Amino acid sequence: MLIPCVMLFLLRYVFDGSPRTFDNIGASLLGIFPLITMFLVTSIATLRERTSGTLERLLAMPLGKGDLIAGYALAFGALAIVQSALATGLAVWFLGLDVTGSPWLLLLVALLDALLGTALGLFVSAFAASEFQAVQFMPAVIFPQLLLCGLFTPRDKMHPALEAVSDVLPMSYAVDGMNEVLRHPDMTTAFVRDALIVAGCALLVLALGAATLKRRTA
What we know:
The chain has helices at residues 3-14, 19-52, 54-59, 65-94, 103-124, 131-141, 143-148, 160-166, 170-183, 189-212. By secondary structure, the protein is mainly α.
């Protein structure tokens, strides 16, 4: 729960001589850090359930795959809520992150990002045979989104092919949503669109995760 807070704290004082830089990228990273940490925690924890036989015993019970995935999502989602609240509170009220919009909107996007990370972790755990393999999915799933989400340069200034790829990556809309809060005092149509896309991607990935569950495991 504290890792995003520690990362934000370090980032703030890395840019101690240029506080505007922290304001420009801090909001985006407020959404990215919870996504990454929840992806790692969820993928490894769920993989343990699959490999230890716990998941197989649960599937022997009369419950649907969607019910099981929803249970995992709620459990990890509760952790995501606390994690996102701590990170948002630290950034806004202690580290002095200057945002034009409401901090509650920042918290909403951070929470949606953390839930997206949870959903991605549940999904990729089906394709890993060990915890090491689960961690190896991070460069394949997270790093491309990190490079193309608009954190380092505006997406419309990228090569057109990369911009087209970034348009279908959920982290791009997470960063866009944070930037909307950073620049506008009120909730904008673009913010609502970005938040709905992130939430929709999380639900889609959860559905795909439910499809990977099997009644019998090897």
